Amino acid sequence: MSENLPFRCASDSLEVSTRRALDRERQEKYELVAACTVRMGAREVEEVMVPFPVTVYDEDDSAPSFLDGVDTASAVVEFKRKKGTVVATLHVFDPDVVPASGELLRRYTSTLLPGDAWALQTFRVEHSPNETLVQADGSFIRATVHDYRLVLNRSLPISESRTLQLAVLVNDSSFQGPGEGTLLLHFNVSVLPVSLRLPSAYSFTVSRRAHLFAQMFVAYV
């Protein structure tokens, strides 16, 4: 077995072991080949080559970080102000792979830090992980990009006008170090009022037979 590989094979037992610690974040898969030589006495009869793939499984040994170093997003809430509207998104990168769905909620938590009651009532944070591939030491390994979306938790009246800063604490609870497993996301939000300006006055003729709540006029903003 090549000295460049982190594996050794004992000739007497054919046991394969590692020469050094393996890091999945550097290389996740090794494609080895096991060669078996069949002999009859001193005569070599056949050599059989069998694929021997090795996969390095993940440990939660990498701290989360900001994707491209961006920890702040700005949002302007103006015309799109209905409940469920995504107003801003920030991304967190983690070299570790996406955990199973049950593990995800336990491992990764996001908390909108206490501010004024209006902000906590108006906004919520939605989290979704996405598996991606990144290059490391000449090979591609799996990693995770966590999307954190700031979402309107209720529809806002067109007269609402506020400027505020929101902070979201992200915690990889199973990360043991070294370093910190927490990040603080910042959202700068401006809620602008919507003004309705009609070009001129309008008059309408209503029939006596008009039903209750009959539509008379529609304005598009």
From TrEMBL:
Residues that span the membrane, as ranges: none
Cellular component, GO annotation: membrane
Keyword Transferase tagged: yes
GO MF annotations in UniProt: calcium ion binding; kinase activity
Entry-linked Gene3D superfamilies: Cadherins (2.60.40.60)
Keywords associated with the record: Calcium, Kinase, Receptor, Transferase
GO BP, sorted A to Z: homophilic cell adhesion via plasma membrane adhesion molecules
Pfam families according to UniProt: RET_CLD3
Occurrences of domain Cadherin (ranges): 7-66
Protein name, as recorded: Proto-oncogene tyrosine-protein kinase receptor Ret
Species the sequence originates in: Myotis davidii (David's myotis)
